[in-house]
Amino acid sequence: MSVQTAPCDWPCVGDCSAFAGLGEPLTSAAKAAAVAFLWEWTGRRFGACETTVRPSRRPHTPGTWSGPSPWRSAFVLGRWSPVFCGGCGMVCGCGSPTRLRLPGPIVEVSTVTVGGDVLDPEAWRVDGRSTLVRQDGEGWPATQDLTLPDGEPGTWSVTYQAGEPVPEGGQIAAGVLACEMAKALTADRTCQLPERISNQVTREGVTVTILDQFEGLEAGRTGLWLVDSWVTSIRQPSRPAKVVAPQRRRPGPSMVRSR
User: Fold this and answer.
1) Cβ distance 97 to 140 under 8 Å?
2) Residue 176 belongs to what H/E stretch?
3) What is the DSSP letter of 116?
4) 49: closest CA among 4, 83, 80, 99?
5) Residue 95 gets which letter from DSSP?
6) For the whole model, what pTM was predicted?
7) pLDDT per residue over 182-226, tens digit each?
8) Phi, psi at residue 126, to the nearest 5°?
9) Among residues 96, 97, 90, 124, which one has the least CA distance to residue 108?
C-alpha cells in the first residue's frame, strides 16, 4: 500500500516573473514545495483524487446472515469502504439496487462502465456527494467477477474524483508562496520570505550562536500575509456571531433561601 505524501490536485494561481528565470524543472519543484507546505498546514484536507472502484457484494454463508446485505468496494484511498444494498433473508437475494454509496465526498463521476460498456451520463446521477443513483429504469449489477480485469463481461466499475476541492484562496496562496520560493532560488531581492539566520555573539573570548528555531512555521506562519491569513482561516475558523437583546438579563447565581 502506497502512502500519500502530496495532494492529487492543487492548482497554483497567479503570474510570477520569477518563474521565467528559474526554468521549468525548478519551477515545478517550487510549486510542488509550496503545495506540500499548504497541504500539511491545513491538515491534509484538500485535493481531490481520481480513483476507480469495483463494487461487489461480500460473500456469505447461507443460513448465517439475515438483514441488510453488505457491499464493499475495492481498496480506495487507503481503506476498504462499505456500501449497502437492500435487505436479504436466509439466502442473499438483493436483486439490482438502484442506489450505490461510494467513498467520498464525490467531486465528479467520470465514467461508469458495465460489462465493458460505458453508460450514458443520463443513466445516473449523484445525490448528496455520496450516492450514485441509477435513473434509467435499470439497477446496478448485483454481482461481479473480481477475478476478471475491468471491462470484461460480468464486471463493472465507477471512476470518479473523491475528496475536497481546493478553495480559490488556497490556489492563490499556493501561487504566492511558489512565486516567493522562486525568487529565493534566483536571489531576487524582492523576495518577501523571511530570512532564517543564525547570530553569533562573542564576549570575552566566548562565542554564542543563536539559531532560528523556525517558530510558527509548523502552523503556517510564513510572514506572507495572504498565505498566513488563508491558512489561519482554515486552521482556526471564526465562530458565528451571536446577537443578544440588551434588555435580556444574564442569569445570576442561584440563591438558596434559608429559614
Assistant:
1) yes
2) helix 168-185
3) T
4) 4
5) -
6) 0.69
7) 999 999 999 998 876 555 556 666 665 555 555 666 677 888 999
8) -110, 125
9) 124
